[in-house]
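Q: I'm building a small set of examples for a reading group on sequence design. Run inverse folding on the following structure and report the sequence directly after it, with nothing in between.
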């Protein structure tokens, strides 16, 4: 062991290369750069022969070396500006941009080509490629769909301009694909609104789906979701807005019934509409009671109209009884409101309200002689009679 440690042996010495062998890889690399430099874009651009440039650019284009060909085509367009040759050079330039994946640039240049050369043999193809460039930029459905809309519009422009073209069928297929993407995005957005309890946004998102995509699959289910969304929106609304929003529920429920008479969702829609009729009366009553005393009597009278409108459309005995109970309470509240209004006024000014209290009691007792509010209503009536007599006697 000791002898081994003292030796001058170098384990790396046997790996050292001959000096010439060391530089061989570098010589190959240098040779590669020398050869390749003969075919660089820069070298071609320095050549004074325009025809040579054109031939070389086409060769690169056909080999798929678009990044080399594009700068040469750009220069050739300047050299041949105003001549017939420019049409072909510009066409290859547009195609090179597209094939290289520069779809923003290709969309612009294809459209520009059509405008500059409306009668070229390449015009039809360039108009189609303009649409295709936007199509290739169209992202996944959950992202911004600006380019999708542009692609649909561009395909439609092509169809309108070349209705007899062999590409029309393909354009229509592409439009269908793109619209399906937009449709999917709209459905997902509506579903997200509903899931996050933004029911107003969900309701209108579903409605717009049927407007924008009348041939959409599951239109029946979407119409059902519109009913549900409007109902949920009405439920979560402030009291003063609930009544009119339950009216909206009834409207969309009626629309559903007229369109899908044999629907599997019909029982749920009818039950929702029934609840909306009852809740319209409830909401009107509750909203009236929140008004200031001097305006409350008018709002309570409005409840009678809403009751008459909706109670006749209720189908279950339970809901009819609940609606009738609300009507009874409304009559009583009107008596009390007139009386309180009279109490807050000076003697002469209160006279009219005491008279209205007495009249309201008369209407109430004729309808609800055995009401649970009868005793209290009678007390108010007697007090009104007494106060009115005092005012009349001076």
């Amino acid at each position: 062991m000791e002898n081994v440690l003292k030796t001058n042996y170098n384990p790396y010495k046997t790996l050292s290369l001959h000096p010439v062998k060391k530089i061989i890889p570098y010589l190959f690399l240098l040779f590669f750069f020398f050869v390749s430099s003969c075919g660089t874009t820069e070298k071609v651009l320095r050549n004074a022969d325009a025809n040579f440039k054109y031939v070389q650019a086409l060769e690169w284009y056909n080999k798929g070396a678009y990044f080399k060909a594009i700068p040469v085509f750009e220069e050739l367009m300047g050299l041949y500006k105003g001549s017939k040759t420019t049409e072909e050079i510009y066409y290859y330039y547009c195609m090179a941009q597209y094939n290289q994946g520069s779809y923003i640039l290709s969309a612009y240049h294809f459209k520009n080509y059509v405008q500059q050369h409306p009668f070229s043999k390449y015009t039809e193809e360039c108009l189609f490629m303009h649409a295709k460039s936007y199509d290739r930029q169209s992202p996944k459905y959950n992202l911004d769909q600006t380019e999708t809309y542009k692609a649909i519009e561009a395909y439609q422009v092509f169809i309108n301009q070349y209705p007899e073209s062999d590409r029309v069928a393909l354009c229509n297929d592409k439009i269908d694909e793109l619209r399906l993407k937009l449709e999917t995005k709209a459905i997902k957005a509506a579903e997200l609104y509903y899931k996050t309890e933004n029911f107003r946004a969900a309701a209108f998102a579903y409605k717009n789906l049927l407007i924008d995509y009348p041939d959409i699959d599951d239109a029946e289910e979407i119409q059902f979701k519109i009913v549900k969304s409007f109902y949920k929106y009405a439920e979560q609304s402030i009291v003063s807005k609930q009544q009119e929003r339950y009216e909206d529920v009834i409207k969309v429920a009626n629309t559903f019934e007229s369109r899908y008479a044999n629907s599997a969702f019909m029982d749920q829609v009818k039950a929702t509409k029934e609840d909306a009729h009852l809740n319209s009366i409830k909401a009107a009553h509750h909203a009236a009671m929140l008004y200031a005393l001097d305006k409350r009597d008018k709002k309570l009278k409005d409840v009678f109209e809403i009751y008459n409108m909706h109670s006749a459309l209720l189908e279950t005995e339970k809901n009819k009884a609940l609606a009738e109970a609300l009507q009874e309470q409304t009559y009583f509240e009107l008596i009390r409101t007139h009386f309180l209004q009279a109490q807050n006024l000076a003697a002469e000014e209160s006279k009219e309200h005491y008279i209205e209290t007495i009249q309201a009691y008369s209407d109430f007792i004729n309808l609800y002689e055995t009401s649970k509010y009868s005793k209290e209503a009678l007390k108010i009536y007697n007090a009104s009679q007494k106060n009115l007599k005092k005012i009349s006697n001076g």
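Residues 64 and 99 are 8 Å apart (CA to CA).
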